[in-house]
Design a protein that fits this description.
Number of helices: 12
Shape: globular
CATH class of the largest domain: Alpha Beta
CATH topology of the largest domain: Rossmann fold
Distance between the termini: 24 Å
Helix content: 25-40%
Radius of gyration: 21 Å
Structural class: alpha/beta
Strand content: 15-25%
Length: about 325
């Protein structure tokens, strides 16, 4: 099968070549958009990443080119118009579980870096400034951490933070009884999580209900000096309201691996350009903000799983069968 791989990166190429060896792969560094869809000419399948455009107009262009399969190299599929794909008869499959540990560990790493001010400390040392002024953190032990979403990733976060002796609150429409028993997780409503948590970490899918769950009202309910972490989806956070809260000192620290307008920004080198995004530019001015470029997933184990599952999905379609990871609109 001819496969056009959009948003391809050097770090994943060897993995995809290894696990998708039965197919002819065309690696495209550009994102899938209405303007780049024509590059899939001659391919029966297209593989896309988290910031590619799977909207209805783009899917129609791919369909006109003869593309019948869409292999997502991600768990989330909110960037794909499933209704339109179903209408076109286009088959879609995802990678539902690649490495919850990778993202959970990155989440906790952001907490520790922000709490202990490690970036600032490292910068000082490089300037031969060994002063400790302004570097005071806090013990994680005994702090209350609110976890919004206790699916596969949120559950691992709970397990890690239990080891730090944190008090764990959680909000999820489907409570995990195992987390209650093993890690003393207390489920409650999200407003209680906002009011009582010293640290809040987001692990919800992006839906109409969860979009901007972190908004002006939510921020006003939080403790002054709260730490907020988002390694899930950028659209969960109203970033402009977060900036206001940072300026007022309401948010003590903010760590993100995702950003609502990251498309065309993250995963690319813009070091020789002028940054056009005023919102993230403002975020970058705060010393108590830590931004990583959607790299939480980036471990060897995760890349193996992503490539392996993508290869499996393509193999099934080539054989005329349906992969178990198929997404139905």
């Amino acid at each position: 099968m001819q496969v056009a791989i959009y948003s391809s990166h050097k770090f994943e190429k060897n993995y995809l070549e290894r696990f998708c060896s039965a197919h002819s792969l065309r690696f495209l560094e550009v994102r899938l958009t209405a303007e780049t869809a024509s590059l899939a000419q001659g391919a029966q399948a297209v593989s896309i990443f988290v910031n590619d455009d799977g909207s209805a107009p783009v899917l129609r262009k791919l369909n006109d080119l003869g593309v019948r399969y869409l292999a997502l190299r991600s768990a989330g599929f909110n960037h794909v118009d499933l209704k339109e794909a179903n209408h076109l008869g286009m088959r879609i499959a995802r990678v539902p579980d690649y490495s919850p540990a990778a993202i959970a560990e990155h989440t906790v790493a952001l907490m520790l870096v922000l709490n202990r001010k490690l970036i600032r400390a490292h910068s000082r040392i490089r300037d031969l400034n060994f002063s400790l002024e302004g570097l005071t953190g806090f013990d994680m032990s005994g702090k209350t951490v609110g976890i919004l979403g206790t699916g596969k990733i949120g559950s691992v976060v709970a397990r890690i933070l239990h080891g730090f002796n944190c008090n764990l609150l959680a909000f999820d429409p489907y409570p995990n009884e195992d987390l209650k028993t093993k890690y003393n997780v207390s489920y409650t409503d999200y407003l209680t999580v906002f009011r009582e948590s010293d640290i809040i970490t987001l692990h919800l899918p992006l839906t109409n209900e969860s979009k901007y769950i972190i908004n002006k009202e939510a921020l006003s309910a939080m403790k002054t000096g709260v730490m907020l972490i988002n390694t899930s989806r950028g659209g969960l956070v109203d970033t402009k309201e977060v900036i206001k809260a940072l300026k007022k000192g309401k948010i003590g620290s903010f760590g993100i691996d995702v950003y609502e307008e990251e498309g065309g920004l993250f995963f690319e080198d813009h070091s020789d350009q002028i940054l056009q995004d005023d919102v993230i530019a403002r975020l970058m001015t705060f010393q108590n903000v830590m931004i990583t470029s959607h790299q939480a997933f980036l471990t060897h184990e995760a890349l193996v799983k992503i490539a392996e599952t993508t290869g499996y999905n393509l193999d099934c379609w080539a054989k005329g069968t349906s992969p178990e990871n198929e997404v139905v609109g």
